[in-house]
Amino acid sequence: MTSQASSECDGTSSGPYDGYIPRNGDYQIPADIQDKINALRFLLETDLIACDAKWTLFVAAALSYRYDTQLKPFPPRFVSTDAGLDIDALISVINDTPKLRVVLQNIVEENYDEIDADVLDLLHHVLVVQREPMLHLVEDNDFDVILSNMEQSEQIPRPTHVFRVCNVPVIHEAIQEQPTYNEDEHPPKLAFHGNRLDCFFAMLTQVGACKQQPANTENAGDELDAPLKLTTDLQAALQHSPNGAGWGASSCGSMISCVAICEFENHPEYVFGDIASSIIEVRKPDLVRIRYLLFYGSRFPDEDEPEEKRPSSWLGRNKYSLSLACYMLLLASIGVANSGSGQYWKQVLSKKAHLLLDFCRRIFTPE
User: Does the keyword section mention Transcription regulation (predicted)?
Assistant: First the structure.
């Protein structure tokens, strides 16, 4: 996609990266590395969760069997003329990447010796070099307004995170010829699109990458010319969005199902809708722009939450003592049962049980 900025997110498309001047210290770094650190710090401080989401989509694409087509351009540090794309080295750096809030904390505190050079370079490539289109976390109230405009039921599953896609070009740039209809009569519309998690990074960053991907890997190597399928029903879109493995350290979850809210130009020559099945087929994917991403991710306990407030924290701290106490109680029970006094109490309890059963029979048995 091109980099023409939209007015609603212009405030986050650029910023004073050189405004963060490091303090004088013993640890000196080159100026070009400092520029990367400043740029990365600005984006992380602007919207940490959105950076986490975009990095998660990148990781999902890197873990895909189609990584060579999903990651374009491929991070240059991992490309060589002899070996080609070094996906193993890329995955190794991804595995070495700590949580982004830890990266930000090290930058703010100038713990540069804690920042791996390869991790910094890769984060800079994904979040800064490929920063457009950018993601912006959407509040719940704003999302409710979006759903009301799309006439969705209140019973739909609530996403864990919603992101606005910023700095995308206007749809009309994708139409090479002059439209033969009145644009006022066919304004852009919104619909949902479900797909595998590893497909969305390419759909955001590559021109013409909005393509329908197969739900399974049976035809993994085939180039699909099928039209892009949208739907006006969120439940139907979720059926085409299976849980996918993302970044394990992501605050959005390690397993995520992603649905896109797309804006499409209702061009009569390329867009065909089936009102009965709520399916919309777009024969020209360039007419589609992703406006929002809905994340349905697994939740993790917050590490900042006090440990004593976690439900299982006391059991976890005292599991050895509890196991030992249960074992001693079991041994004591066996010893009492095998002793002489134990046999006496067994007979007493047996007689009491028989008396209780006879009493119940007399009460509940009809005369």
Answer: no
